[in-house]
Amino acid sequence: MSNAEHTHILPVRHLMANLIKLMILMVLTVVAARLAPIPDTMFANFVAMGIAVAKAAFVISIFMAVKFSTKLTKLFALGGFVWLLLIGGILIDYYSRPWEPVVGWEDASSLPRTPGVDE
Amino acid sequence: MSEPAAQDPEAPVVCGQYETIEQQQECYIVGMWTFLVTEILFFGGMFLVYVLYRTTYSKEWAAMSTKLDFWWGGLNTAVLLLSSFFVAMAVRCAQLKRTRAQLNYIGLTIVCACAFLVVKYIEYSGKIEHNMFPNWSFVAPDGIEVGPARLFMSLYFAMTGLHGIHVLVGIIVFVVLILMVRAKAPSISDHIPTEMIGLYWHFVDLVWIFLYPLFYLIPAINP
């Protein structure tokens, strides 16, 4: 395989179209959050983050050229999402602690106060 | 030395540990992605703190969010997206060996990066002027509890500040790249250095893509 075949050179119109998509999404997120706010705030959160994820997908696939890269590069790019598993695990631990109280892990506000230290 | 390098004097040199130029280039790009994964983990800790406190102080943080000017944040988002386009164009020009255009696009990226930092300076100045930065005499806006408000501003300065440092590093690296390309440095014999720095810059853009809605836009989860 020659170097030219290995390197994927994107056409300008392809890059320009990606920029326009990103700009449209940016305007949409401002409109949905501030200019014409979505009444259901929980849904508004999902819309804002959904648009952010879509923008990130366009940047990663086209500008970072992951879409046209080798399988090994794609695998390492996928490694960036391992963090989501870590944050998921930590959040499960954090929010499930009150369900199964463990001695020594009580909420600090419920513990007896130490004179001279806490007061 | 591999066959293409022997035929073309301007072709990139294949180092001894690689069999082909394709293998060498893939190795560089994979190495850059590995670095970016560590950067994601670096920012990830802060995003985790954000999630924990935002769910705890949802109402207060949503109220504080309205104290940030979303127009400035939006302008910075547009500037960074545009800079990402310029970087992608610079990589394309490097692939096509159009050095003049490559340098112009890198220059435009640096202009965008500087514009981003100027907007950030204006924003930070306003917050510091109104004592809305983490300090002992921090004054929360009316109706908002001081603790969560200070926490919001602390994380705002920490996360956007860390991102700003990355922008600054990007500017320095781009300037070094321009100097090396102009000097025809032996290590800049193909498009790979531009592509690697470009990947870093797109990552900086990606972080801001999430920081913008998280700090400037999204309302309370349970108002």
Key terms:
heterodimer; A: 119 residues; mainly alpha; 5 helices; disordered N terminus; B: 223 residues; Four Helix Bundle (Hemerythrin (Met), subunit A); 7 helices; elongated
Chart the SSEs and their pairings:
The complex is a heterodimer of chains A (119) and B (223).
Chain A: H1 3-6, H2 12-35, H3 41-63, H4 71-78, H5 82-96
Helix pairs in contact in A: 2-3
Chain B: H1 3-7, H2 21-56, H3 58-65, H4 70-95, H5 99-129, H6 146-182, H7 192-217
Helix pairs in contact in B: 2-6, 2-7, 3-6, 4-5, 4-7, 5-6, 6-7
Sketch the topology of chain A as an H/E string, one letter per element. HHHHH
H/E topology pattern of chain B: HHHHHHH
> What is the number of domains of chain B?
1
* Tally of alpha and pi helices of chain A: 5
- Could you estimate the helical fraction of the residues of chain B in percent? over 70%
Total beta strand runs of chain A: 0
- Average pLDDT of chain B works out at 91
CATH architecture of chain B: Up-down Bundle
What oligomerization state is this entry in? heterodimer
Q: Rg of chain B to the nearest angstrom? A: 21 Å
User: What pair of chains forms the biggest interface?
Assistant: A-B, 51 and 53 residues
Write down the overall geometry of chain A: flat
> Span from first to last CA of chain B?
67 Å
Level-1 CATH class name of chain B: Mainly Alpha
